[in-house]
Amino acid sequence: MRTGDVMTTPVITVGPDTTVRDATALMAEHGVALLPVVSVDGRLVGVVAESDVLRGRVRHGPGDRDDALARTVGDVMTRAVCTVSPWTDVAAAVVLMVDRGLRSLPVVGEGGLVGIITRRDVARVLGRSDEDLRLAVSRRLDAYAGCHRWEVHAHRGGIVLCDEEDDPVQQHIATVLAAAVPGTVHVATHRRDSCPVHAVRGLSRPTVGVGTGDRRRQAVGP
């Protein structure tokens, strides 16, 4: 699962000339603790966080509150920014956030800032239910190969795909499509007549269905 699959987009941004007062108001309005700072041509030049705003105000003292809020984001922002790309593995992004003590990371592509990934984004995706994930994978595969071709099993982020045919090319395509669904941790493919549901490590009594048209739920396994 890539960062681009779970990131928040579009991103609320500010410019270096935005006042600290306006940046603070944006944070409060949207419930965010960090805003990417972009130049006129769209380049990421820094980030401004609640801590940057507080430091800017404390340096001036309580008597200079109005002057501090009138300063620009460019005066208080952090210029050395830790970023990831849309193709960065989500696990690597999580490790980076934990190791650096960060709550979010700007996502930068070839054209500049394309999104932002937060700890909340990751938690929301990893907390996806088995049934929700199974249906999402089924819909994606049905759109590609037609309804009911792939039997989809889901458990704790693991996906097992079972097909009537033993076609390596189609299995690879199905694996790529399933892996791109937010919440998928890993994928295994098998022929339907020999589909080991327990191929997902620790799989026990998963939710099973065939395509999106089948809404039956049954227990499989011991």
Structure classification: alpha+beta
Reported for the largest beta sheet, the result is: 4 strands, mixed
Mean pLDDT: 79
Give the count of helical stretches: 9
CATH level 3 topology of the largest domain: CBS-domain
Q: What top-tier CATH class of the largest domain fits best?
A: Alpha Beta
In total, the number of domains comes to 2
Helix content: 25-40%
| Portion in beta strands | 15-25%
The main sheet orders its strands as 7-6-5-8
SSE ordering: HHEEHHHHEEHHEEHEE
Query: How many β-strand runs?
Result: 8
Please compute the radius of gyration using only Cα atoms.
Answer: 23 Å
CATH architecture heading of the largest domain: Roll
**For the record, what is the CATH homologous superfamily label of the largest domain?**
CBS-domain
Distance between the termini: 30 Å
